């Protein structure tokens, strides 16, 4: 019998299968959850399709009110959600509490957004209006690094726009999504929100189903390409928020100590398991040694522990498969560069690695060119601005980037040359529900967040009326 049930058609149901969930800090099972079969995935899609017409006709104010109620419910259950999030994902409890607060904040902002029609022409000759209509059933497929927040990123705009949704969390982090389903079951009409789980075997089933009008996916670029191919036959609408290999470019006029702290925080948030984290730091030659030393000091001082332990700053890698991948990156770091902090696994249960700083590496090395998605930061030396911009832009990714300088105008001039969906100056991972988020190149397709993100969940319709003779 599962500890957590799925939400299908307004009912909390057991799965045709069960699935154990591993705590990455202990490598022990901490929960057993319902797991869907294809039959149950089909039932969830059908429930969403059945609920769609009435939900699409529900006044916007009522849809907004339901999303606000979900935000209220998250606040009321924040402690329980945060603890479960730490157990399934690994992040320190303080970071889990932050994710809960972010989820609430994003939902509250979505609930303020309007889907207003726009009048292009209104005169004696005619009336032309642009309207936005819901698409139908949305499949939301989410990654394991921010399982509650990203679930809300999908549910919020989908239902505000008048769509219904079938949400599928990652197999290694299904618990908080199913807990969210318990809250949704008491708020939304039956079938508007459905949450099912799988063992990485139902994604293709969802994306290929002709009743699915749109797929919203957050995860790896490789999986995003598979989803895009699967959705092609039905010409489904897509939003793909994919991988990144974000550069942080540090100019020669920074305060080394303060900037190192900002770089470190942006690189090792959530144990480096953030698509928008700094994955490669380019540091000017004149301050390179000092910056490497300061980053190494911060890494050595960081407290790595079970996320539920008092004082933990960095938790484990979320799952064993990713743990093995990151250990392979450590070998690349040892081979091609000089590790000045970390570089070793921690001899204990759980998927723990010390935060690692590697210097004396360059473009062309695996640790620089590929996304580590773990607690490793390569630091690359540069001396010429044109050269470092070209190196930053040479990546197939383009999700985020940052420029750090004591001269904001100079930093802005550099930032404007970087090919990336988001470019920050003297900060990184500065996101919010009112700020559009989009990737270029292999980092994604479409827009998340803000009014632009909400529009991705709608179909544009032009009404063109002739007047007079």
UniProtKB/TrEMBL annotation:
PROSITE patterns, A to Z: ALDEHYDE_DEHYDR_CYS, ALDEHYDE_DEHYDR_GLU
Keyword set includes Cell membrane: no
Residue ranges of coiled coil: none
Name listed for the protein in its UniProt record: Aldehyde dehydrogenase
Active site (catalytic residues): 241
CDD domains noted in UniProt: ALDH_AldA-AAD23400
InterPro entries cross-referenced by the UniProt entry: Ald_DH/histidinol_DH (IPR016161), Ald_DH_C (IPR016163), Ald_DH_CS_CYS (IPR016160), Ald_DH_CS_GLU (IPR029510), Ald_DH_N (IPR016162), Aldehyde_DH_dom (IPR015590), LUC3-like (IPR044086)
Record key words, sorted: Oxidoreductase
Family, similarity comment: Belongs to the aldehyde dehydrogenase family.
Pfam family name, one: Aldedh
GO molecular function, one term: oxidoreductase activity, acting on the aldehyde or oxo group of donors, NAD or NADP as acceptor
Every Aldehyde dehydrogenase domain range: 17-461
